[in-house]
Amino acid sequence: MINQFRNLNPINLLLLFAYTFFMRMAIFADPPAQLNFEFLEPYTKFFIQIPVQNTFSPIANAFFAAIIIYVQAILFNRVVNNHGLLNKPGFLPALLYVTAAGLFMPFLVLSPTLICNFLLIWIMDKLLKVGKSPNALMIMFDIGMIIALGTLIYFPFIVMLVMIWFTLLLYRSFNGREWIAGLVGFLTIFFFVWVFYYWNDSLSMFYKIWLPLGNKFPSVFKINYNDYLVLVPVLVMMVLAMIQLRENFFRSFISTRKAFQMLFIMFLVAIVSVYTKPDFRLYHFLLCVPPGSVLLAYYFSNAKKRWFYESLFLILVFAIQYFLFV
């Protein structure tokens, strides 16, 4: 399986499509009685009304989620290959993206974070261009606007603003205009939101949008560890990827080193941003899938012992299926 996807063979597009639905067999075999899909925050619904809450049946919901994951995997694969993050171009990033996006049952249905991942992949592409651009002013402005759009869909996406400044710190010498361009882009979108609230005499509601930023990071989590045993093979792969990165770190291009540092921070930011959402949902961690999939793909693109990496991948796939069905 891994060897097949290491190459840019067009047949892999068909195999990936089949694999996407294979990883979602559990929800098609036993769909829930009802699935509600709301992909806009309450403060966005105040001025945008999209009646989709009960539009889809559970099967249709899972089907469209699978199609979205497939499309995102292709876009994600293109970004990774275009920026040369792996040894050679192939379909490994797409394969690992689909796999990571099937870890838990809440990942298999439509959710705000699933929609936001389109924006996150777009942001990844733009951030990876920062080091290659003579002027990052417009890139930062665009990223700020994209983050604002994501915040209208899912509030924790706002924490991705941190990635603007971390990326500039990593790639470029200090330029004050570049450092504020992203924030200006973000505020441009929310200025129009403010105007709408002002016209409707609802400024008090606008100010409440930002209250979650003052939340304290939860010190206690109620966790059923049996639900997360599927993460054990993922953690093993992540550790192996980190070891592989460490071994190749100084032999890699400087741009590649910086790219992986940036993606690792993005992975951590996606995890930490959960504190801004008091009604925590497991689907939040879909935001970790794009940066995390790059690290997983890096391990499999560099692994040497075929019997080991193929076996490890099969263990992960069977573990996912087992815990989804059980």
Automatic annotation (TrEMBL):
Instruction: Give the stretches traversing the membrane.
Output: 12-29, 59-80, 92-123, 143-168, 180-199, 228-247, 259-276, 282-300, 307-325
Answer yes or no on keyword Transmembrane.
yes
Q: Which is an annotated Pfam family here? A: DUF6427
**InterPro entries to which the protein is assigned, alphabetical:** DUF6427
Give UniProt keywords alphabetically.
Membrane, Transmembrane, Transmembrane helix
Name of the protein in question:
Beta-carotene 15,15'-monooxygenase
